[in-house]
Amino acid sequence: MKNFGLHIWGDDNFVIEDDTVNINHASNPSLLQLTQEIREKGYKGPLLLRFPHLIQKQIDTLFSTFAKAKKEFGYRGNFHAVFPLKVNQFPNFVHSLIEVSQTYRYGLEAGSKAELIIAITKTPLGAPITVNGFKDKEMIGLCFIGAKMGHNITVTIEGIGELKSILEVYEEFNRNSDTPISPKIGIRIRLHSTGIGMWAKSGGYSSKFGLTSTELLEVYEILKEHTLLENLWMVHFHIGSQMGDIAPLKKALREAGNIYADLKRRGAHALSAINIGGGLAVEYAQHQHTRERNYALSEFANDVIYLMQEIAKSKGVDEPDIFTESGRYIAASHSVLVAPVLELFSQEYHEKSLRPKEKNPPLIQELFDLYNTIKRTNAREYLHDALDHMESLLTLFDLGYIDLEDRSNTEILVNLIIKRAISLLKNEATDELRRLQDRIQERYLVNFSAFQSLPDFWGLSQHFPVMPLNHLSSAPTNPASLWDITCDSDGEIGFDHEHPLYLHDVDLNKEEYFVGFFLTGAYQEILGMKHNLFTHPTEAVIRFDEAGNYHIEALIEAQNLMDVLDDLDYDTGIIDKALKQRIEESEAISPEEKQELLGKIYLYLSENSYLKTSQALGETEQGVNA
Ligand SMILES: *Cc1c(COP(=O)(O)O)cnc(C)c1O
After folding, report:
1. Does any ligand 1 atom lie closer than 6 A to the CB of residue 207?
2. What does the pLDDT look like over 41-72, one tens digit per residue?
3. How many CB atoms lie within 10 A of CB 391?
4. Which of 146, 290, 460, 558 has its CA 20 to 30 A from that of 545?
5. Residue 84 C-alpha to ligand 1 middle, in angstroms?
6. What count of other Cβ atoms lies within 10 Å of the Cβ of residue 457?
7. Cβ(186) to ligand 1 under 6 A?
8. What is the spatial distance between Cα 419 and Cα 421, in angstroms, rounded to a whole number?
9. Which residues of the chain have pLDDT under 50?
C-alpha cells in the first residue's frame, strides 16, 4: 500500500511527488513544506490545515452535477443547496465556505438558536436558509426576524406543537402590520423507509423527527384554517448521514414525492420544493475491500431528478425545486490534521542495541547465526527455530542461568528475525505470519488526541485515511499502531488486518516524521472533546492566489492552559495566585530561583497542552513569543 489508498479516498486532491504528498492544485506545495513553514513560526503540536479550494471543488461539483442532470432530463424545477452548520461551525471554515460559494446563492441550514444566528448573519441575502430541529417560540421568533431582514428563510415543522408556536409567533410579529412578513414553512415527513449504516436513526418510522401521515393532514388543515397555506412550500426529509447505498434514497424520494404531489393536489398550491436533506457519503476507505460508498454523485443526482419528474408527471403536478443539505460531502475533504510522531516504541529492538558477549550462551549464538543467514528459502524454518529458542531462553532466565543482557539480546534478535522473515515471506501471507506481524507492530506515539480530533473513530469506529507526509518513495515496512498522547487506552488506532497501516522505520533523532489524517473536515471538530484537556489544535487556512502561490492565513493557535481552565469555570485568578503563593512560600527555593520559576510558569501558561518536544532537534522548543 505504497500510496496509502490515495486513489480510493483522495479524489485527485493530493498527489505523491517523489517523496512527499502534495496538494494537487496550483503550485502543488507539499503538506510537509506547509507544516514546516507553520512550525517555523513557532506553532508546534498538531496542526489542522484548511483548504478552501477543496470546499469550492465540492460545491462546484454538486451544482454542476445537478445542472447536468436537470439538463439531461429537461427538468423544470430549480436546484438549490444549503450547508448544514452542525457539520462544521468553525469560523475559518464558514467564512471560507461563504467566500467560495458566492456565485451560487448557496445558503446555510441551522438546527439551533446559535446556528441560526450564524445563518442570519453570514448568509448572503437571497440565498436560502433552512431551519430544522426542535424549536421553541424564541427560535421561531428568530426566524421571523430573519425574514424581516429580507432573508429567504424556511422554517421546518418537526411536530404539530411547533405549528401552534408558529401561529402564535406569526400573530405576535405581524400584529401591527398590514403586510405580514413570515418565514416560509416546510414540513418534515416521517419516512417509512429507513436509512442504512450507523447514522440511520435520523430517518425511518421511529426517527426522532418528522410528521406522520395523520399529522401531515392535520397540519394542512390547520394552515388552511389560518389562511397560511400559501406559506407552505417545502417538503423535507433526511435519511441519515453517510448513506453507503443509493437504494434507501430512492425509496425515500418516492415517499416524499408522493406526499408532495398529494398535498399539492389537495390544495397546497404554494408547495413547490422538496428538500432531500443530507446523507451523501464520503469515501473514507484506504483499501478496496472496505469501500463505504457504492454510487457516484451523478447517479445520486440522476435518481433525484428522474424520480421527482416521474412522480410529478404521473400525478399531474409541477416538478418541484430540489434542495439538498449535504454537509459531510461538502466539508470532509477540506481539512487535514497533521501530527508529529514523537516516538517509536519498539525501536529498542534495533541491531545497534545488541550487546554481544565474548562468549554468548549457545542458544543465543544460534539466534545470531539464524539472523545472519536467514533467506527466502529457509525463512519459515528459521523463524520457527527462533521462536522455539526464545521460549527456552526465557525459561533459562527464569531459572537464573542467563542474565539480563542475554535476555535483552534474545528479545532483540527474535524481533529482528521475525521482521526479516515477514518481509521475506510477504507474498505468502499466512495466519501465522499475520499473528507474528501483530507481535512486532511498531507503536507510533503521535502528538494529537483522538478524542479531540477523530471523535468518530473513538465513538463509531469510523476509519479515517492516514498517511505519512514524506518517505513516500520507499515502501513502509512497520505494521503500525498509532497512540495518541491522552492517558486513555482508547486513544489508540491499533494495527488491524481489515485496514492494515504500514509506516516507515525512521530515526526520530535524525529527522522529524509526520502523519496526516485526512477527510476530517466534517463533524470531527465540533464533536471533538477535551479529554485530558487537549483542545482544538492550532489551525491555519491555506489559500492560493491567482498566480498559484499559496498563503498561510488565519492562524489560530490552540487555546492556552489558562483559557482551557477558564472554560471549565475555574477561577483563573485564584489559580494564578495559588501558583505564585506556593512558589513564594516554598522554603526549598532560593529567592533568585523563585523569580526564574515564576518566569517559566508564566511562559508555560501561555502555551497549549500539546507536547512540544522535538527529538530531531534534541531539545525542547521554546514558546512562540520566547
Ligand atoms: C445532519 C443533517 C444534514 C447533513 O447530513 P450529511 O450526511 O452531513 O450530509 C442535513 N440535513 C439535516 C436535517 C441534518 O440533520
Report:
1. no
2. 999 899 999 999 999 999 999 999 999 999 99
3. 10
4. 558
5. 6
6. 21
7. no
8. 5
9. 197, 199, 617-626
Question: Taking the model in full, what pTM does it have?
Answer: 0.91
AA letter at 432: E
CB distance 241 to ligand 1 below 6 Å: yes
Measured in Å, residue 144 CA sits from the centre of ligand 1 at 23
Q: Is the CB of residue 335 less than 8 Å from the CB of residue 48?
A: yes
The whole-number pLDDT of residue 395 equals 96
Output the nine-digit C-alpha cell for 115.
Answer: 446556528
Q: Where are the alpha helices (DSSP H) in 316-378?
A: 328-331, 362-373
User: Which ligand 1 atom is the nearest neighbour of the CA of 329?
Assistant: 9
Note the pLDDT of residue 619: 44
Distance, C-alpha 227 to centroid of its chain: 45
**Regarding beta strands 321-324 and 335-344, do their DSSP bridges make them parallel or antiparallel, or are they unpaired?**
unpaired
pLDDT of residue 626: 28
Residue whose cell numbers read 487537549: 534
Q: Supply the residue whose CA is at minimum distance from atom 4 of ligand 1.
A: 278
Instruction: Let me know: does 252 contact 202? Beta carbons within 8 Å.
Output: no
DSSP 8-class letter at 111: S
Phi, psi dihedral angles at 446 (to 5 degrees): -115, 135
List phi, psi (to 5°) of 614. Answer: -135, 105
